[in-house]
Design goal:
The complex is a heterodimer of chains A (82) and B (401).
Chain A: H1 5-16, H2 32-36, H3 40-54, H4 69-81
Helix pairs in contact in A: 1-4
Chain B: H1 9-20, E1 33-36, E2 39-42, E3 45-49, H2 62-75, H3 90-103, E4 107-111, H4 114-125, E5 131-135, H5 140-148, E6 152-156, H6 161-170, E7 177-182, E8 184-185, E9 190-191, H7 194-203, E10 207-211, H8 226-229, E11 238-242, E12 252-256, H9 264-267, H10 269-272, H11 279-292, H12 296-315, E13 329-334, H13 337-350, E14 352-353, E15 355-357, E16 366-371, H14 378-395
Parallel strand pairs in B: 3-14, 5-6, 5-7, 7-10, 10-11
Antiparallel strand pairs in B: 1-2, 2-3, 4-12, 8-9, 11-12, 13-16, 15-16
Helix pairs in contact in B: 2-11, 3-11, 4-5, 6-7, 12-14, 13-14
Classes of the chains: A mainly alpha (82), B alpha/beta (401).
Chain lengths: 82, 401
């Protein structure tokens, strides 16, 4: 089954919700650094959860390019479809 | 005009805040005299050093000093050149020979620092389309080497064999993989379950590097490191190490049995594009390494001192980073930054130097890190414990009794 950014997004937001300590509304445009203000340890836990959910690897070196939830959804779909 | 320093303002504010509280500055301490591997003079007062990496106390060894002095006189103060140009002297070759003998391996390569050894190995060994799999608590030099190269970087949970296995399974089977482990993790002083981890890495077809910076000299029958103590010597592809800890000077190295190892001398940029170590340094290192091969009594004493320190600090009610002494590093946990700084300053007032680990190095933890030396006498350890108790009272640090 082929995944797209849009099909990944709703589940991805569910995974991120427990990390949303500020209780803001999450969307594809939500920025991890600016809006969620996640520290580096939290980012690592979140990345591990996303990896486990989709059974993929999100390489550490890719993370600086993934600014928003939408960016991650796109990356997950791309890796999963490879 | 934008000031490029503006981005550092939060750090400047934090530091100035700490200083404004009248606190002694933990980051600009000056050792006025070094009396021995365990004693120094600070502000005109003698203190006991319990925060150095001088595990085997080799810095004032008479043979080491003599070798350095001879090389300084005969070969001059510096090489003024790269290892691959004019910077390889007889002393560098002898130092690499000492490492080959110490590790009983075919190849050894000496870098100018341990940091550069990791920088060079990580950035050169894995390229685009290949993977480096590293422990989340890896040293900055490993992370920086990864950032310098083009491999995909995969982290696993600190010391978790299960997480390492899970991540290795997700990497394409035919992709080149390098698993990076450390014998002793220096912040808390815990050791890696190398037997299990190396087995998992090998099963996945990965090459394995173990950084033994904080283990060389006193783990294993020959002092080679945790990988020797764990019985996986024939499974490890590279061992990284440093001269700035047990060896007692400065420099870094990689040893290996891989037949093609020497090509790394051309492809490790931190090896090629920097000056080689001064002749006196490699002479001190070679002499020290050869003496460490037979330093069984020192090894035994270091372990006894580390275990005694751990047991007595724990009995006094301090909260420690590990349940038992796993290495020569004993990390004392502090409740917050303020009391960490207070306790550190109280220890200096008592005449004890330990490392105050900045929270940037250990997110979520405030540590006062002690490291033992083979030259710490039993009486010195007793004195350190007594001073710790008095410092805790002075700093208002609650102890659990």
């Amino acid at each position: 089954m082929s995944l797209s950014k849009d099909t990944v997004l709703p589940r991805l937001i569910e995974i991120i919700e427990p990390f949303n300590k500020k209780g803001i509304a999450l969307s594809a445009d939500t920025s991890f650094a600016r809006d969620l203000e996640l520290d580096s340890l939290t980012v690592m836990d979140l990345v591990a959860e996303i990896e486990d959910e989709y059974d993929i690897i999100l390489p550490v070196n890719m993370l600086p390019d993934l600014e928003t939830i939408g960016d991650v959804a796109g990356a997950v779909a791309e890796i999963k479809n490879k | 005009m934008p000031d490029l320093f503006d981005k550092f303002q939060p750090l400047i504010d934090q530091y100035e805040g700490l200083m404004a509280s009248g606190m002694r500055d933990p980051f600009h301490l000056k050792m006025e005299k070094i009396l021995s591997p365990t004693r120094a003079v600070v502000d005109g007062r003698e203190i006991i050093l319990v925060g150095t990496y001088n595990y085997m106390g080799m810095t004032f060894d008479p043979d080491v000093i003599a070798a350095g002095q001879k090389a300084l006189e005969e070969f001059g103060s510096g090489t003024t050149g790269s290892r691959v140009l004019n910077g390889t002297y007889q002393g560098h070759a002898e130092c690499e020979a000492a490492l080959r003998d110490f590790y009983d391996m075919d190849h050894a390569m000496v870098f100018s620092t341990g940091y550069q050894a990791n920088l060079g190995l990580m950035s050169a060994m894995a390229g685009r389309g290949e993977y480096i799999v590293l422990d989340a608590d890896s040293h900055a030099s490993i992370y920086d080497g990864c950032a310098m190269g083009n491999a995909d970087i995969v982290r696993f949970k600190h010391n978790s064999v299960e997480d390492l296995a899970k991540r290795l399974k997700r990497i394409p089977e035919d992709a080149g993989k390098l698993v990076v482990l450390e014998g002793v993790y220096s912040m808390v002083g815990d050791i890696a379950p190398l037997k299990e981890m190396v087995a998992v890495a090998k099963e996945a077809g990965a090459m394995v590097v173990v950084d033994e910076a904080h283990a060389m000299g006193f783990f294993g029958e020959n002092g080679r490191g945790v990988f020797e103590a764990a019985g996986v010597e024939d499974q490890v592809d590279f061992v990284v190490g440093t001269f700035s800890k047990s060896v007692g000077t400065v420099g870094g190295f990689v040893v290996s049995n891989h037949p093609k190892f020497d090509v790394l001398r051309f492809v490790c940029r931190p090896y090629v594009y920097t000056a080689s170590l001064p002749p006196a340094v490699v002479a001190c290192a070679a002499t020290s390494i050869r003496k460490l091969m037979h330093a069984h009594d020192k090894r035994a004493h270091l372990w006894a001192a580390s275990r005694k320190m751990h047991a007595e600090l724990r009995a006094a009610g301090f909260t420690l980073g590990t349940a038992e002494a796993e290495s020569a590093i004993i990390a004392v946990k502090m409740p917050d930054q303020e009391r960490s700084a207070k306790m550190w300053a109280a220890l200096i007032d008592e005449g004890v130097y330990v490392n105050m680990v900045p929270p940037q190095a250990t997110p979520g933890l405030h540590l006062l890190r002690c490291s033992l030396c083979a030259e710490h006498s039993d009486a010195e350890v007793d004195e350190i414990i007594a001073r710790f108790k008095r410092a805790a009272a002075a700093a208002g640090l609650p102890l659990s009794t």
